[in-house]
Amino acid sequence: MRQIGHFIDGKAAAGGSGRSGDVFNPNTGEVQAKVAFASKAEVERAIASAEAAQPAWAATNPQRRARVLLRFLELAQKEANELAQLLSSEHGKTIADSKGDIQRGLEVVEFACGIPHLLKGEFSESAGPGIDLFSLRQPLGVVAGITPFNFPAMIPMWKFAPALACGNAFVLKPSERDPSVPMRLAELLIEAGLPAGVLNVVNGDKEAVDALLTDARVKAIGFVGSSAIAEYIYTTGCAHGKRVQCFGGAKNHMVVMPDADMDQAVDALIGAGYGSGGERCMAVSVAVPVGKKTADVLMDKLIPRVESLKIGPSTDTQADYGPLVTKMHLDKVRTYVDLGIKEGAKLRVDGRNFKLQGYENGFFMGGCLFDDVQPHMRIYKEEIFGPVLSVVRAEDYEEALRLPSEHEYGNGVAIFTRDGDTARDFTSRVNVGMVGVNFAIPVPLAYYTFGGWKRSGFGDLNQHGPDAVRFYTKTKTVTSRWPSGRKEGADFVIPTMK
Length: 498
Ligand code: NAD
Known about the structure:
The chain has helices spanning 40-59, 62-78, 80-91, 95-112, 115-118, 154-165, 180-191, 206-214, 227-239, 262-274, 292-307, 327-343, 378-381, 397-406, 420-429, 466-471; strands at 2-4, 6-8, 11-13, 20-25, 30-36, 123-128, 131-139, 142-146, 169-173, 199-201, 218-224, 243-247, 252-256, 284-289, 346-349, 368-371, 388-391, 409-410, 412-416, 434-437, 453-454, 457-458, 473-481. The protein is of the alpha/beta class. The strands form six sheets. It has a seven-stranded mixed sheet with strand order 15-16-17-14-13-19-20, sandwiched between helices. The protein has a six-stranded mixed sheet with strand order 10-9-8-11-12-22, sandwiched between helices. A three-stranded mixed sheet has the order 1-5-4, with helices on one face. Strand 2 (6-8) and strand 3 form a beta hairpin. Helix 4 packs parallel to helix 6. The longest helix is centred in the N-terminal third of the chain and has 20 residues, at 40-59. It starts with a strand and ends in a 17-residue tail after the last strand. Nicotinamide-adenine-dinucleotide is lined by residues 146-151, 173, 175-176, 205-206, 209, 224-226, 229, 247-250, 281, 383, 385, 411, 452, 456.
Protein backbone atom coordinates (compact mmCIF):
# COMPACT_ATOMS: atom_id res chain seq x y z
CA MET A 1 0.00 0.00 0.00
CA ARG A 2 1.29 3.48 -0.91
CA GLN A 3 2.22 5.51 2.19
CA ILE A 4 1.90 9.29 2.20
CA GLY A 5 4.00 10.99 4.87
CA HIS A 6 4.89 14.65 5.32
CA PHE A 7 7.17 17.15 3.59
CA ILE A 8 9.57 18.74 6.04
CA ASP A 9 12.80 20.66 5.47
CA GLY A 10 12.67 20.29 1.73
CA LYS A 11 12.13 16.54 1.58
CA ALA A 12 9.63 13.76 2.15
CA ALA A 13 9.42 12.57 5.76
CA ALA A 14 7.78 9.29 6.74
CA GLY A 15 5.04 9.56 9.35
CA GLY A 16 6.15 8.50 12.80
CA SER A 17 3.01 8.83 14.94
CA GLY A 18 1.63 5.38 14.20
CA ARG A 19 -1.69 6.97 13.24
CA SER A 20 -2.96 7.21 9.67
CA GLY A 21 -6.08 7.55 7.52
CA ASP A 22 -7.39 5.93 4.36
CA VAL A 23 -7.18 7.68 1.00
CA PHE A 24 -9.83 6.19 -1.28
CA ASN A 25 -10.20 5.88 -5.00
CA PRO A 26 -13.78 7.21 -5.14
CA ASN A 27 -14.37 5.58 -8.53
CA THR A 28 -13.88 2.08 -7.17
CA GLY A 29 -14.32 2.52 -3.43
CA GLU A 30 -10.90 0.97 -2.81
CA VAL A 31 -8.34 2.28 -0.34
CA GLN A 32 -5.44 3.35 -2.57
CA ALA A 33 -3.07 4.82 0.03
CA LYS A 34 -2.54 5.47 3.72
CA VAL A 35 -1.85 9.01 4.82
CA ALA A 36 0.13 9.60 8.00
CA PHE A 37 -1.45 11.71 10.73
CA ALA A 38 1.17 13.98 12.25
CA SER A 39 1.78 14.05 15.98
CA LYS A 40 2.30 17.33 17.86
CA ALA A 41 6.07 16.66 17.81
CA GLU A 42 6.09 16.23 14.02
CA VAL A 43 4.19 19.48 13.55
CA GLU A 44 6.66 21.19 15.88
CA ARG A 45 9.48 19.90 13.71
CA ALA A 46 7.84 21.44 10.63
CA ILE A 47 7.36 24.76 12.45
CA ALA A 48 11.00 24.74 13.61
CA SER A 49 12.15 24.11 10.04
CA ALA A 50 9.99 27.00 8.80
CA GLU A 51 11.22 29.29 11.55
CA ALA A 52 14.86 28.57 10.72
CA ALA A 53 14.35 29.15 6.98
CA GLN A 54 12.18 32.28 7.15
CA PRO A 55 14.70 35.09 7.87
CA ALA A 56 16.87 34.32 4.82
CA TRP A 57 13.76 33.98 2.64
CA ALA A 58 12.44 37.33 3.91
CA ALA A 59 15.83 38.86 3.14
CA THR A 60 15.68 37.54 -0.46
CA ASN A 61 14.47 40.50 -2.49
CA PRO A 62 10.84 40.37 -3.68
CA GLN A 63 11.81 40.07 -7.34
CA ARG A 64 13.86 36.95 -6.60
CA ARG A 65 11.01 35.50 -4.54
CA ALA A 66 8.72 36.18 -7.50
CA ARG A 67 11.14 34.36 -9.82
CA VAL A 68 10.82 31.21 -7.71
CA LEU A 69 7.05 31.44 -8.08
CA LEU A 70 7.40 32.02 -11.83
CA ARG A 71 9.51 28.88 -12.16
CA PHE A 72 6.95 26.99 -10.05
CA LEU A 73 4.22 28.24 -12.38
CA GLU A 74 6.08 26.88 -15.41
CA LEU A 75 6.74 23.50 -13.75
CA ALA A 76 3.13 23.12 -12.60
CA GLN A 77 1.80 24.09 -16.03
CA LYS A 78 4.09 21.53 -17.67
CA GLU A 79 2.81 18.87 -15.29
CA ALA A 80 -0.85 19.98 -15.31
CA ASN A 81 -2.14 16.77 -16.96
CA GLU A 82 -0.45 14.47 -14.45
CA LEU A 83 -1.50 16.69 -11.56
CA ALA A 84 -5.11 16.65 -12.78
CA GLN A 85 -5.10 12.84 -13.00
CA LEU A 86 -3.67 12.54 -9.50
CA LEU A 87 -6.21 15.02 -8.17
CA SER A 88 -9.16 13.24 -9.81
CA SER A 89 -7.99 9.85 -8.58
CA GLU A 90 -8.36 10.96 -4.94
CA HIS A 91 -11.16 13.53 -5.15
CA GLY A 92 -13.37 12.00 -7.85
CA LYS A 93 -13.98 15.17 -9.88
CA THR A 94 -13.59 14.88 -13.66
CA ILE A 95 -10.15 15.48 -15.15
CA ALA A 96 -11.40 18.62 -16.92
CA ASP A 97 -12.66 19.94 -13.58
CA SER A 98 -9.36 19.07 -11.90
CA LYS A 99 -7.58 21.10 -14.57
CA GLY A 100 -9.81 24.01 -13.61
CA ASP A 101 -8.95 23.46 -9.92
CA ILE A 102 -5.23 23.67 -10.77
CA GLN A 103 -5.64 26.61 -13.15
CA ARG A 104 -7.59 28.74 -10.63
CA GLY A 105 -4.79 28.11 -8.12
CA LEU A 106 -2.08 29.01 -10.64
CA GLU A 107 -3.88 32.28 -11.37
CA VAL A 108 -3.23 33.31 -7.77
CA VAL A 109 0.42 32.28 -8.21
CA GLU A 110 0.50 34.60 -11.27
CA PHE A 111 -0.98 37.37 -9.12
CA ALA A 112 1.61 36.72 -6.40
CA CYS A 113 4.39 37.07 -9.00
CA GLY A 114 3.54 40.77 -8.99
CA ILE A 115 4.78 41.01 -5.40
CA PRO A 116 7.52 43.62 -6.02
CA HIS A 117 4.74 46.00 -7.01
CA LEU A 118 2.19 44.77 -4.45
CA LEU A 119 4.55 45.22 -1.51
CA LYS A 120 5.29 48.86 -2.23
CA GLY A 121 4.58 51.05 0.76
CA GLU A 122 3.51 54.68 0.99
CA PHE A 123 5.83 57.71 1.18
CA SER A 124 5.06 61.29 2.13
CA GLU A 125 7.93 63.64 1.57
CA SER A 126 8.22 66.66 3.92
CA ALA A 127 5.28 65.72 6.08
CA GLY A 128 6.84 68.21 8.54
CA PRO A 129 10.07 70.25 8.58
CA GLY A 130 12.72 67.81 7.37
CA ILE A 131 10.29 64.97 8.16
CA ASP A 132 9.41 62.15 5.79
CA LEU A 133 6.72 59.64 6.64
CA PHE A 134 6.59 56.21 5.09
CA SER A 135 5.15 52.73 5.55
CA LEU A 136 6.69 49.32 5.01
CA ARG A 137 5.04 45.94 4.62
CA GLN A 138 6.97 43.23 6.43
CA PRO A 139 6.29 39.48 6.58
CA LEU A 140 4.74 37.95 9.69
CA GLY A 141 7.22 35.06 10.02
CA VAL A 142 5.81 31.51 10.07
CA VAL A 143 2.20 31.21 8.91
CA ALA A 144 0.00 28.15 8.39
CA GLY A 145 -2.82 27.06 6.09
CA ILE A 146 -5.46 24.40 6.74
CA THR A 147 -7.36 23.43 3.62
CA PRO A 148 -10.43 21.36 2.59
CA PHE A 149 -10.81 18.33 0.35
CA ASN A 150 -12.83 19.93 -2.41
CA PHE A 151 -10.09 22.05 -4.05
CA PRO A 152 -6.86 20.25 -3.13
CA ALA A 153 -4.78 22.26 -5.63
CA MET A 154 -6.48 25.64 -5.80
CA ILE A 155 -6.93 26.44 -2.13
CA PRO A 156 -3.41 25.47 -0.97
CA MET A 157 -2.08 27.73 -3.76
CA TRP A 158 -4.45 30.56 -2.75
CA LYS A 159 -2.83 30.34 0.66
CA PHE A 160 0.85 29.66 0.11
CA ALA A 161 1.52 31.74 -3.03
CA PRO A 162 0.79 35.17 -1.52
CA ALA A 163 2.20 34.15 1.86
CA LEU A 164 5.53 33.04 0.38
CA ALA A 165 5.68 36.02 -1.98
CA CYS A 166 5.39 38.32 1.05
CA GLY A 167 8.46 36.65 2.62
CA ASN A 168 6.78 34.29 5.09
CA ALA A 169 7.54 30.61 5.64
CA PHE A 170 4.51 28.35 5.40
CA VAL A 171 3.22 25.17 7.05
CA LEU A 172 0.39 23.57 5.07
CA LYS A 173 -2.05 21.06 6.57
CA PRO A 174 -4.06 19.84 3.57
CA SER A 175 -7.16 17.67 3.68
CA GLU A 176 -6.42 14.11 4.74
CA ARG A 177 -8.84 12.90 2.07
CA ASP A 178 -6.79 13.97 -0.98
CA PRO A 179 -3.26 14.91 0.13
CA SER A 180 -1.18 13.83 -2.90
CA VAL A 181 -1.48 16.96 -5.03
CA PRO A 182 -0.46 19.35 -2.21
CA MET A 183 2.54 17.07 -1.53
CA ARG A 184 3.54 17.22 -5.20
CA LEU A 185 3.15 21.01 -5.26
CA ALA A 186 5.63 21.20 -2.36
CA GLU A 187 8.15 19.15 -4.36
CA LEU A 188 7.67 21.39 -7.38
CA LEU A 189 8.37 24.46 -5.25
CA ILE A 190 11.71 22.96 -4.24
CA GLU A 191 12.48 22.19 -7.90
CA ALA A 192 11.63 25.81 -8.65
CA GLY A 193 14.27 26.98 -6.21
CA LEU A 194 12.39 27.53 -2.95
CA PRO A 195 14.86 26.99 -0.11
CA ALA A 196 14.23 23.94 2.10
CA GLY A 197 11.98 24.67 5.07
CA VAL A 198 10.22 27.68 3.56
CA LEU A 199 7.24 25.45 2.79
CA ASN A 200 6.47 22.36 4.85
CA VAL A 201 3.46 20.06 4.56
CA VAL A 202 2.11 18.12 7.51
CA ASN A 203 -0.71 15.68 6.93
CA GLY A 204 -3.14 14.84 9.63
CA ASP A 205 -6.27 15.57 11.59
CA LYS A 206 -7.30 17.61 14.66
CA GLU A 207 -4.08 16.79 16.51
CA ALA A 208 -1.96 18.42 13.79
CA VAL A 209 -4.34 21.38 13.50
CA ASP A 210 -4.37 21.96 17.26
CA ALA A 211 -0.58 21.91 17.32
CA LEU A 212 -0.55 24.72 14.71
CA LEU A 213 -3.27 26.67 16.52
CA THR A 214 -1.51 26.73 19.86
CA ASP A 215 2.16 27.15 18.87
CA ALA A 216 3.39 30.69 19.55
CA ARG A 217 5.80 30.55 16.60
CA VAL A 218 2.87 30.45 14.15
CA LYS A 219 1.80 34.06 13.60
CA ALA A 220 -1.18 33.61 11.28
CA ILE A 221 -3.61 30.89 10.25
CA GLY A 222 -5.67 30.74 7.08
CA PHE A 223 -8.42 28.12 7.03
CA VAL A 224 -10.98 26.91 4.50
CA GLY A 225 -13.55 24.23 5.33
CA SER A 226 -16.89 23.74 7.04
CA SER A 227 -18.32 26.49 9.25
CA ALA A 228 -18.25 24.65 12.58
CA ILE A 229 -14.52 23.95 12.20
CA ALA A 230 -13.94 27.46 10.79
CA GLU A 231 -15.45 28.95 13.93
CA TYR A 232 -13.39 26.66 16.17
CA ILE A 233 -10.19 27.59 14.36
CA TYR A 234 -11.03 31.27 14.41
CA THR A 235 -11.78 31.42 18.14
CA THR A 236 -8.88 29.14 19.16
CA GLY A 237 -6.36 30.87 16.90
CA CYS A 238 -7.44 34.34 18.10
CA ALA A 239 -7.26 33.18 21.73
CA HIS A 240 -3.64 32.26 21.04
CA GLY A 241 -2.87 35.72 19.70
CA LYS A 242 -2.76 34.85 16.01
CA ARG A 243 -4.06 36.65 12.97
CA VAL A 244 -6.78 34.32 11.64
CA GLN A 245 -9.01 34.21 8.57
CA CYS A 246 -11.45 31.31 8.14
CA PHE A 247 -13.78 30.60 5.26
CA GLY A 248 -16.70 28.28 5.90
CA GLY A 249 -19.67 26.55 4.36
CA ALA A 250 -22.34 27.92 2.07
CA LYS A 251 -25.88 27.79 0.78
CA ASN A 252 -25.74 29.71 -2.48
CA HIS A 253 -29.02 30.90 -3.97
CA MET A 254 -29.74 31.67 -7.59
CA VAL A 255 -32.72 33.97 -8.14
CA VAL A 256 -34.52 33.54 -11.47
CA MET A 257 -36.63 36.56 -12.39
CA PRO A 258 -39.64 36.20 -14.73
CA ASP A 259 -37.80 38.11 -17.47
CA ALA A 260 -34.69 35.89 -17.33
CA ASP A 261 -33.51 33.94 -20.36
CA MET A 262 -34.82 30.61 -19.06
CA ASP A 263 -32.56 28.41 -21.17
CA GLN A 264 -29.51 30.31 -19.98
CA ALA A 265 -30.78 30.07 -16.37
CA VAL A 266 -31.32 26.31 -16.65
CA ASP A 267 -27.87 25.75 -18.17
CA ALA A 268 -26.40 27.78 -15.32
CA LEU A 269 -28.30 25.84 -12.65
CA ILE A 270 -27.29 22.49 -14.09
CA GLY A 271 -23.61 23.40 -14.25
CA ALA A 272 -23.42 25.27 -10.96
CA GLY A 273 -25.69 22.89 -9.05
CA TYR A 274 -24.33 19.54 -10.19
CA GLY A 275 -20.78 20.26 -11.45
CA SER A 276 -18.21 18.50 -9.25
CA GLY A 277 -21.16 16.60 -7.72
CA GLY A 278 -22.17 19.79 -5.86
CA GLU A 279 -18.98 19.60 -3.79
CA ARG A 280 -18.06 23.26 -4.31
CA CYS A 281 -18.40 26.03 -1.77
CA MET A 282 -19.77 28.20 -4.59
CA ALA A 283 -22.15 25.51 -5.94
CA VAL A 284 -25.70 26.75 -6.36
CA SER A 285 -27.81 24.64 -4.00
CA VAL A 286 -31.00 26.75 -3.96
CA ALA A 287 -32.90 28.01 -7.01
CA VAL A 288 -35.40 30.79 -6.31
CA PRO A 289 -37.82 31.32 -9.21
CA VAL A 290 -39.96 34.43 -8.79
CA GLY A 291 -43.65 33.90 -9.44
CA LYS A 292 -45.60 30.69 -10.12
CA LYS A 293 -45.24 30.85 -13.89
CA THR A 294 -41.45 31.22 -13.70
CA ALA A 295 -41.28 28.32 -11.23
CA ASP A 296 -43.42 26.04 -13.39
CA VAL A 297 -41.43 26.77 -16.55
CA LEU A 298 -38.16 26.32 -14.65
CA MET A 299 -39.24 22.94 -13.21
CA ASP A 300 -40.43 21.73 -16.63
CA LYS A 301 -37.05 22.52 -18.11
CA LEU A 302 -34.96 21.37 -15.15
CA ILE A 303 -36.46 17.92 -14.56
CA PRO A 304 -35.37 16.32 -17.88
CA ARG A 305 -31.94 17.93 -17.60
CA VAL A 306 -31.35 16.53 -14.10
CA GLU A 307 -32.66 13.12 -15.17
CA SER A 308 -30.22 13.02 -18.07
CA LEU A 309 -27.08 14.09 -16.20
CA LYS A 310 -24.17 11.91 -17.23
CA ILE A 311 -22.41 10.51 -14.20
CA GLY A 312 -19.21 8.57 -14.74
CA PRO A 313 -15.79 7.79 -13.36
CA SER A 314 -13.50 10.79 -13.11
CA THR A 315 -11.56 9.47 -16.13
CA ASP A 316 -14.63 9.58 -18.39
CA THR A 317 -14.22 12.67 -20.56
CA GLN A 318 -17.96 12.66 -21.34
CA ALA A 319 -19.08 12.67 -17.68
CA ASP A 320 -20.78 15.75 -16.20
CA TYR A 321 -19.53 14.78 -12.78
CA GLY A 322 -17.87 11.88 -11.00
CA PRO A 323 -18.24 10.14 -7.64
CA LEU A 324 -18.41 11.89 -4.28
CA VAL A 325 -15.26 11.95 -2.20
CA THR A 326 -15.96 9.19 0.34
CA LYS A 327 -18.64 6.66 1.28
CA MET A 328 -19.20 8.58 4.49
CA HIS A 329 -19.94 11.76 2.56
CA LEU A 330 -22.18 9.91 0.10
CA ASP A 331 -24.20 8.50 3.02
CA LYS A 332 -24.51 11.97 4.54
CA VAL A 333 -25.86 13.44 1.28
CA ARG A 334 -28.33 10.56 0.83
CA THR A 335 -29.54 11.04 4.42
CA TYR A 336 -30.28 14.69 3.65
CA VAL A 337 -32.44 13.62 0.71
CA ASP A 338 -34.35 11.19 3.00
CA LEU A 339 -34.78 14.06 5.45
CA GLY A 340 -36.12 16.41 2.77
CA ILE A 341 -38.85 13.91 1.90
CA LYS A 342 -39.76 13.60 5.61
CA GLU A 343 -39.83 17.38 5.93
CA GLY A 344 -42.43 17.55 3.14
CA ALA A 345 -40.38 18.84 0.19
CA LYS A 346 -41.31 17.28 -3.17
CA LEU A 347 -38.51 15.14 -4.59
CA ARG A 348 -38.93 15.49 -8.37
CA VAL A 349 -35.77 13.63 -9.37
CA ASP A 350 -34.37 10.92 -7.12
CA GLY A 351 -30.73 10.00 -7.70
CA ARG A 352 -30.14 8.22 -4.39
CA ASN A 353 -29.93 4.72 -5.79
CA PHE A 354 -27.90 5.48 -8.87
CA LYS A 355 -25.40 2.69 -9.66
CA LEU A 356 -22.74 2.80 -12.33
CA GLN A 357 -22.17 -0.47 -14.14
CA GLY A 358 -18.65 -1.74 -13.56
CA TYR A 359 -18.17 0.67 -10.66
CA GLU A 360 -20.72 -0.67 -8.21
CA ASN A 361 -18.54 0.10 -5.17
CA GLY A 362 -17.75 3.65 -6.27
CA PHE A 363 -19.24 6.59 -4.38
CA PHE A 364 -21.64 7.65 -7.11
CA MET A 365 -24.90 9.48 -6.67
CA GLY A 366 -27.44 10.65 -9.23
CA GLY A 367 -28.74 14.19 -9.37
CA CYS A 368 -31.62 15.01 -7.00
CA LEU A 369 -34.10 17.85 -7.42
CA PHE A 370 -36.52 19.10 -4.76
CA ASP A 371 -39.46 21.42 -5.39
CA ASP A 372 -41.47 23.35 -2.79
CA VAL A 373 -38.64 23.52 -0.26
CA GLN A 374 -39.57 25.80 2.65
CA PRO A 375 -37.18 28.06 4.60
CA HIS A 376 -37.84 26.27 7.91
CA MET A 377 -36.62 22.89 6.57
CA ARG A 378 -33.19 21.58 7.52
CA ILE A 379 -32.45 20.75 3.87
CA TYR A 380 -32.74 24.50 3.24
CA LYS A 381 -30.91 25.70 6.31
CA GLU A 382 -27.94 23.31 6.21
CA GLU A 383 -25.21 22.74 3.65
CA ILE A 384 -25.65 19.37 1.89
CA PHE A 385 -22.57 19.52 -0.37
CA GLY A 386 -23.81 17.02 -2.93
CA PRO A 387 -25.72 16.85 -6.24
CA VAL A 388 -28.97 18.07 -4.69
CA LEU A 389 -30.75 21.24 -5.84
CA SER A 390 -33.62 22.73 -3.83
CA VAL A 391 -36.20 24.95 -5.46
CA VAL A 392 -37.74 27.54 -3.13
CA ARG A 393 -40.59 29.38 -4.82
CA ALA A 394 -40.76 33.11 -4.08
CA GLU A 395 -43.89 35.15 -4.71
CA ASP A 396 -42.10 38.33 -5.62
CA TYR A 397 -38.69 39.99 -5.92
CA GLU A 398 -38.61 41.23 -2.31
CA GLU A 399 -39.12 37.68 -1.00
CA ALA A 400 -36.40 36.40 -3.35
CA LEU A 401 -34.03 39.08 -2.07
CA ARG A 402 -34.83 38.26 1.57
CA LEU A 403 -34.09 34.54 1.28
CA PRO A 404 -30.30 34.69 0.68
CA SER A 405 -30.03 37.88 2.75
CA GLU A 406 -31.51 36.24 5.83
CA HIS A 407 -29.82 32.85 5.41
CA GLU A 408 -27.10 32.22 7.98
CA TYR A 409 -24.57 31.53 5.21
CA GLY A 410 -23.50 34.32 2.87
CA ASN A 411 -20.90 33.03 0.44
CA GLY A 412 -22.21 33.50 -3.09
CA VAL A 413 -25.51 34.45 -4.73
CA ALA A 414 -26.70 35.04 -8.27
CA ILE A 415 -29.58 36.73 -10.05
CA PHE A 416 -30.72 35.97 -13.57
CA THR A 417 -32.66 38.81 -15.17
CA ARG A 418 -32.72 41.02 -18.26
CA ASP A 419 -33.57 44.08 -16.20
CA GLY A 420 -30.65 46.32 -15.26
CA ASP A 421 -32.55 48.13 -12.50
CA THR A 422 -33.41 44.87 -10.75
CA ALA A 423 -29.86 43.56 -11.11
CA ARG A 424 -28.43 46.77 -9.70
CA ASP A 425 -30.84 46.88 -6.77
CA PHE A 426 -30.14 43.22 -5.96
CA THR A 427 -26.36 43.70 -6.15
CA SER A 428 -26.53 46.63 -3.77
CA ARG A 429 -28.99 45.25 -1.19
CA VAL A 430 -28.29 41.51 -0.95
CA ASN A 431 -26.53 40.52 2.29
CA VAL A 432 -24.01 38.12 0.72
CA GLY A 433 -20.27 38.46 0.00
CA MET A 434 -20.01 37.54 -3.70
CA VAL A 435 -22.69 38.31 -6.28
CA GLY A 436 -23.22 37.12 -9.85
CA VAL A 437 -25.45 38.85 -12.39
CA ASN A 438 -26.43 36.31 -15.04
CA PHE A 439 -23.35 34.48 -13.74
CA ALA A 440 -23.93 31.48 -11.49
CA ILE A 441 -20.52 30.92 -9.87
CA PRO A 442 -19.15 34.39 -9.11
CA VAL A 443 -15.71 33.34 -7.87
CA PRO A 444 -13.72 36.57 -8.30
CA LEU A 445 -10.52 36.44 -10.32
CA ALA A 446 -7.15 36.38 -8.55
CA TYR A 447 -6.67 40.15 -8.49
CA TYR A 448 -9.96 40.71 -6.62
CA THR A 449 -10.62 39.18 -3.23
CA PHE A 450 -12.69 36.11 -2.38
CA GLY A 451 -14.71 35.87 0.78
CA GLY A 452 -18.19 35.15 2.06
CA TRP A 453 -20.16 36.92 4.78
CA LYS A 454 -22.00 35.78 7.91
CA ARG A 455 -21.20 32.13 8.78
CA SER A 456 -19.31 31.70 5.52
CA GLY A 457 -16.40 33.85 6.69
CA PHE A 458 -14.70 34.56 10.02
CA GLY A 459 -12.11 37.32 10.25
CA ASP A 460 -11.56 40.68 8.63
CA LEU A 461 -9.74 40.11 5.38
CA ASN A 462 -10.54 38.05 2.28
CA GLN A 463 -8.45 35.55 0.35
CA HIS A 464 -6.22 36.47 -2.62
CA GLY A 465 -6.19 39.87 -4.31
CA PRO A 466 -4.95 42.87 -2.32
CA ASP A 467 -6.35 41.49 0.96
CA ALA A 468 -3.92 38.55 0.81
CA VAL A 469 -0.96 40.93 0.89
CA ARG A 470 -2.54 42.78 3.84
CA PHE A 471 -3.20 39.50 5.66
CA TYR A 472 0.30 38.10 5.21
CA THR A 473 2.19 41.28 6.13
CA LYS A 474 2.31 43.72 9.00
CA THR A 475 2.58 47.42 8.36
CA LYS A 476 5.37 49.42 9.89
CA THR A 477 5.10 53.21 9.71
CA VAL A 478 8.25 55.30 9.98
CA THR A 479 8.54 59.00 10.83
CA SER A 480 12.03 60.13 9.85
CA ARG A 481 13.72 63.52 10.26
CA TRP A 482 16.83 64.61 8.38
CA PRO A 483 19.13 66.41 8.91
CA SER A 484 19.52 64.87 12.33
CA GLY A 485 21.51 67.69 13.85
CA ARG A 486 18.66 70.24 14.11
CA LYS A 487 18.35 71.64 17.69
CA GLU A 488 14.86 72.57 18.89
CA GLY A 489 14.97 71.76 22.60
CA ALA A 490 12.69 69.33 24.39
CA ASP A 491 8.98 69.52 23.54
CA PHE A 492 6.58 68.13 26.14
CA VAL A 493 3.48 68.47 23.94
CA ILE A 494 2.49 65.71 21.54
CA PRO A 495 3.67 66.65 18.01
CA THR A 496 0.80 67.91 15.83
CA MET A 497 0.48 69.47 12.38
CA LYS A 498 -0.86 72.79 13.65
P1 NAD B 1 -13.73 20.18 6.89
O1 NAD B 1 -14.15 21.33 7.74
O2 NAD B 1 -14.18 18.82 7.26
O3 NAD B 1 -12.12 20.10 6.83
C1 NAD B 1 -11.33 21.22 6.50
C2 NAD B 1 -9.96 21.06 7.16
O4 NAD B 1 -10.13 21.06 8.59
C3 NAD B 1 -9.25 19.76 6.81
O5 NAD B 1 -7.88 20.02 6.63
C4 NAD B 1 -9.51 18.89 8.03
O6 NAD B 1 -8.48 17.96 8.27
C5 NAD B 1 -9.56 19.89 9.16
N1 NAD B 1 -10.43 19.45 10.27
C6 NAD B 1 -11.52 18.65 10.19
N2 NAD B 1 -12.04 18.46 11.41
C7 NAD B 1 -11.30 19.16 12.28
C8 NAD B 1 -11.36 19.36 13.69
N3 NAD B 1 -12.31 18.81 14.44
N4 NAD B 1 -10.43 20.14 14.27
C9 NAD B 1 -9.46 20.73 13.53
N5 NAD B 1 -9.36 20.56 12.18
C10 NAD B 1 -10.27 19.79 11.56
O7 NAD B 1 -14.17 20.55 5.39
P2 NAD B 1 -14.11 19.63 4.11
O8 NAD B 1 -15.17 18.60 4.21
O9 NAD B 1 -12.73 19.19 3.83
O10 NAD B 1 -14.49 20.67 2.98
C11 NAD B 1 -15.80 21.00 2.64
C12 NAD B 1 -16.25 22.26 3.34
O11 NAD B 1 -15.39 23.35 3.00
C13 NAD B 1 -17.64 22.71 2.91
O12 NAD B 1 -18.33 23.17 4.04
C14 NAD B 1 -17.36 23.84 1.95
O13 NAD B 1 -18.42 24.78 1.81
C15 NAD B 1 -16.17 24.46 2.58
N6 NAD B 1 -15.43 25.28 1.64
C16 NAD B 1 -15.48 26.62 1.80
C17 NAD B 1 -14.81 27.44 0.91
C18 NAD B 1 -14.85 28.93 1.07
O14 NAD B 1 -14.00 29.60 0.51
N7 NAD B 1 -15.78 29.47 1.82
C19 NAD B 1 -14.07 26.87 -0.13
C20 NAD B 1 -14.03 25.48 -0.24
C21 NAD B 1 -14.71 24.69 0.66
